[in-house]
Design a protein that fits this description.
Distance between the termini of chain A: 12 Å
Helix content of chain B: 25-40%
Strand order of the largest sheet of chain A: 1-2
Oligomer: heterodimer
Largest sheet of chain B: 6 strands, parallel
Structural class of chain A: mainly alpha
Largest interface: A-B, 16 and 14 residues
CATH superfamily of the largest domain in chain B: NAD(P)-binding Rossmann-like Domain
Number of strands of chain A: 2
Order of helices and strands of chain A: HHHHHHHHHHHHHHHHHEEHHHHHH
Helix content of chain A: 55-70%
CATH class of the largest domain in chain B: Alpha Beta
Radius of gyration of chain B: 23 Å
Number of strands of chain B: 22
CATH architecture of the largest domain in chain B: 3-Layer(aba) Sandwich
Chain lengths: 493, 446
């Protein structure tokens, strides 16, 4: 058996760090231009990241063999998603915007995993360069760090197939082009175009350059960092509507968005997941509006808030805005359910993913038929394609684990002094990479994560990571079966 | 180029893997979703599970944009049907694999074109042809003509009594300076070696030579190969390959054919006039001896089982048969079989892939030959007007380490290049290259 290819993992992680170092040039230049005094911190952290990247790529990585086995691809996924935020925390530390190492790490993980939970109380007081950096981490993390590598490293060749799988494990989706590099490039192009369009629109509507950039990055990546403590409404009425529209589309499968952009609309509506997504959106808005209206809020207020709130929740963007005067318990329940369901598979959003939910619901419906007709033969179909029973098992396992993670996270948070509903909501919002939801406020918690004890912050960080790598990669790396395979050999060799 | 390959297993996968390495956009359509999943994980291509005779599946594979549609399933009627559909759905060119050589007749060509099948490929027929060629060419175990015979590539095994074993490459060039051939590569223990001046030849090496035509006698003398003229041959297996090979050779040499299945024997006997068809088990050595194995000059094992073919060939070799040819379908066995001394390996997958690659227009390479036992390729390039290769003498070209120039064709003239040769525009250059340097080499000549 071949030896574990940790060299390649080091090399790819190193390359990622080099891109991070290059990305730091943007806030650095902005900092020099705005004279906000942060240039030194960015330069130092940039140098450190550059050095770490070079070390990993050249010294440790060296001449790696360009092949990845399945188990190695899990390691690579986890390594990339841990190392990037780890080094990405340096700027927060050096600029001193966070109080402690834990806070810096929390902020960084929240950025890269596009969660958007923040320990920073008043973002409007932050220097613009830091705001830009925060938004940038979300943008990079949005489509997936490994896809970033695949797009830029055509050499990876063979292993790239399993990387794509590792990043898109939940989707089973067909590539956009026979060549991996090409299909990934197309995805990045769509992603970039969406961001640029939103940025442009916001600028036209009178939002400042930096605010518009940050909002665009955080929206399209479904991250949800805001530049103002009172939320997105601080930007104005029209920008808020624009952002709402883009939030909705960010929760849609990127491959579908590609069809939208290439004007292949004929097949668009045939996609079952998009149909369900839209239907769920419309129904939820209707329910939400009615609930608020019945609680005694104005109809127009209720409708506006509902549309924004549902788009933000379903795409797992997680922007917050001032809530209507009278909150409704029905909305709380609805929001919680939507948070756990999450966005469409293959989108930048998080959560269990709508596709899995569709598969589960169809399977259970079929199962009920079986109770009446014991000999019935059935298949679960999504978009007219049969879903294999292997995959269905995986879906059920995933959903079960997801619930276990939420309960586990909630348990630890309760131990840290949060009320039970608040703890569970917080755990769900973070594992779904949603972040600040008005739900947490209304459950008696606070969107200000700075007040939480360290243990709680670490727990939430872990949940964000687990949600982002879709649980299995993380579990594979720590699973006993995996180590039983590895350890005896290490002793022998 | 966008290529769609419709297959049902090995042949399609092999073709897909090789073509992906050459930078084509490949989509594989195959009914086995489990196998496809593995293929897609290992190789950079798109796979679609489904039947290639379904218009919906073909549309999913984006058949309208494809430059070449290749159907290589085992069932020829499915292949033909798939090609007809693909052509109607706007595939530019279609190739179908067939197993009945009757369809290849020139008079049917237009008919197939009309219904949308542009090219037909019959691996069994090509394999039989290759066997015929090898029987007529007594020295080489494999050979290939470039530019209508202006240059020929031979694969020759160096025996232990050959005068060149023990010599280094440099000594060889000095001793035999009249030799009109270049050794472009050595296959040793399954490893491809591009020779350098200090390389010492060992017995058992397989040498790839490129030479001018009609040099075979000199080459034979230098390499110390006897001229085996085949008078009697024994063919084991009366499948299509065996039958086609026997049909081509009948009358010229005495052929004994051995086949286990009674029914196949009857069929073969009905088809063949002068061949002695024996019903019996080829692994029964006594039977082979009784039928005159010791007196045969060539032993050809083409049964459906690679293992039987290899083992019976080994037996024949041991009993003193000069030339052994085995059909080996399992690609993993190829280099192993070469190592243990079987002269020639025939592999239908390689043959089919090699043949189909003709239809794939690379920007610069005209023709390429895929070789058995090595993943290196022989390619013929048309040197472009502005190609970097025309700017320097060969010695100053930064030719990558895994490549050698075997020969140059200028007009009707053949040049065996030395370090001081100058390549000119419009030359045809035959290059032996390992896959990892293929791209560099292409750049050099385009």
């Amino acid at each position: 058996m071949r030896r574990f290819n940790w060299k390649l993992i080091a090399q790819v992680t190193g390359v990622l760090l080099l891109y991070l170092a290059a990305g730091l040039l943007l806030p650095l230049v902005l900092s020099i231009y705005e004279r906000d005094g942060m240039q030194f911190a960015f330069a130092v952290s940039g140098m450190l990241i550059l050095m770490a990247g070079l070390f990993l790529r050249n010294m440790v990585g060296g001449k790696a063999e360009y092949r990845l086995r399945q188990d190695e691809s899990y390691w690579l996924t986890v390594a990339a998603w841990v190392v990037m935020p780890l080094f990405g925390a340096l700027p927060y530390l050096f600029t001193g915007v966070t109080q402690s190492f834990t806070d810096a790490l929390f902020e960084s993980f929240s950025g890269f995993t596009t969660t958007g939970s923040s320990v920073i109380r008043h973002p409007e007081e932050l220097p613009p360069s830091i705001l830009a950096y925060r938004a940038l981490t979300q943008w990079v993390g949005g489509l997936g760090l490994l896809l970033f590598v695949v797009a830029l490293l055509r050499r990876l060749g063979l292993g790239a197939g399993s990387l794509y799988e590792a990043e898109f494990s939940g989707t089973q989706q067909r590539k956009l082009h026979p060549r991996l590099a090409q299909s990934v490039t197309r995805m990045w192009t769509i992603y970039g175009l969406l961001t640029a369009t939103l940025w442009g629109l916001l600028m036209v509507q009178g939002v400042g350059l930096v605010d518009a950039f940050c909002t665009a990055c955080s929206t399209v990546s479904t991250g949800g960092f805001t530049t103002h403590s009172e939320g997105i409404t601080a930007l104005g009425v029209h920008p808020t509507s624009t952002v709402t529209v883009f939030m909705f589309f960010s929760g849609v499968n990127v491959a579908i968005l590609y069809r939208l952009f290439t004007l292949r609309w004929r097949h668009l509506w045939r996609d079952g997941e998009l149909r369900t997504y839209t239907l769920l959106f419309v129904c939820s808005v209707a329910l939400c509006t009615t609930a608020f209206f019945l609680e005694g809020n104005g109809f127009s207020d209720s409708l506006h808030f509902s549309i924004f709130h549902i788009a933000s929740t379903m795409s797992t963007c997680g922007y917050h805005m001032p809530v209507p005067t009278h909150w409704s318990f029905v909305v709380s329940v609805l929001t919680f359910v939507l948070i756990v369901i999450g966005a469409s598979a293959g989108s930048t959003g998080g959560g269990i993913k709508l596709r899995r939910i569709i598969i589960m619901v169809k399977y259970i419906a079929n199962y009920l038929t079986r109770m009446i007709h014991p000999n019935v033969v059935f298949h679960v179909k999504v978009n007219n394609e049969v879903v294999e029973s292997d995959y269905i098992n995986k879906v059920f396992a995933f959903v079960f684990l997801y619930i276990v993670f939420i309960i586990g996270g909630g348990f630890v948070l309760t131990m840290c002094g949060c009320s039970i509903p608040n703890a569970v909501c917080m755990a769900a919002a973070n594992i779904s990479n949603l972040g600040p939801s008005p739900l947490i406020n209304t459950m008696g918690g606070s969107l200000d994560y700075a007040v939480l004890p360290h243990v709680a912050k670490w727990t939430l960080t872990l949940l964000m990571l687990a949600g982002r790598v879709e649980l299995f990669a993380l579990l594979a790396v720590v699973s006993p079966a995996y180590w039983r395979l590895r350890l005896p050999k290490a002793r022998r060799g | 180029m966008n290529i769609i390959i419709a297959g049902d297993g090995e042949v399609g996968f092999y073709l897909a893997r090789s073509l992906t390495d050459l930078d084509h956009n490949i989509t594989v359509v195959d009914p086995h979703s489990e196998l496809l999943k593995r293929l897609e994980k290992e190789t950079d291509l798109l796979t679609i599970a489904g039947s290639s005779t379904s218009p919906q599946v073909l549309a999913d594979a984006n058949v309208g944009d494809c430059d070449l549609f290749v159907a290589v399933l085992h069932d020829e009627s499915i292949n033909l049907m798939s090609c007809v559909l693909a052509k109607r759905l706007k595939a530019k060119r279609t190739v179908a694999r067939i197993s009945n050589a009757e369809l290849l007749a020139p008079k049917h060509r237009d008919m197939f074109r009309e219904i949308g099948v542009d090219e037909l490929v019959c691996p069994e027929r090509i394999a039989a042809k290759e066997i015929t060629n090898l029987l007529n060419n007594s020295v080489a175990t494999e050979f290939f003509d470039f530019s209508g015979g202006l240059l020929t590539m031979y694969l020759i095994r160096l025996d232990s009594d050959s005068p060149v074993t023990g010599l280094s490459m440099q000594q060889l060039v000095q001793t035999y300076n009249t030799l009109q051939a270049r050794i472009v590569a050595i296959l040793r223990n399954g490893e491809t070696i591009i020779p350098h001046a200090g390389l010492v030849f060992q017995p058992g090496d397989l040498a790839y030579l490129i030479s001018r035509p009609n040099q075979l006698d000199t080459i034979r003398e230098v390499l110390g190969k006897d001229n085996v003229s085949v008078r009697r041959a024994m063919i084991v297996g009366a499948g299509r390959i065996g039958r086609y090979a026997a049909m081509a050779q009948e009358g010229r040499i005495d052929i004994t054919m051995i086949e286990e299945s009674r029914q196949r024997c009857e069929e073969a006997a009905a088809l063949l006039e002068k061949t002695l068809v024996i019903n019996g088990d080829a692994t029964d050595i006594e039977l082979l001896k009784d039928e005159g194995l010791q007196d045969t000059d060539a032993f050809i094992a083409v049964t459906d089982s690679s293992e039987t073919n290899i083992l019976t060939c080994l037996h024949a070799k041991k009993l003193g048969v000069r030339r052994t040819i085995a059909l080996v379908e399992n690609t993993g066995f190829i280099s192993l079989s070469q190592d243990i001394g079987i002269d020639t390996i025939i592999n239908k997958k390689l043959i089919t892939a090699s043949y189909i690659s003709r239809f794939i227009v690379r920007a610069d390479a005209v023709r390429s030959k895929w070789l058995s036992g090595t993943n290196a390729e022989l390619m013929e390039f048309n040197v472009g007007k502005w190609s970097p290769a025309t700017r320097h003498l060969i010695r100053d070209l930064s030719l990558p380490k895994g490549a050698t120039i075997g020969g140059i064709i200028r007009g009707n003239e053949t040049i065996l290049p030395t370090r001081d040769t100058q390549i000119k525009a419009k030359d045809k250059v035959v290059v032996f290259a390992l896959p990892k340097v293929m791209e560099q080499v292409s750049k050099l000549f385009s």
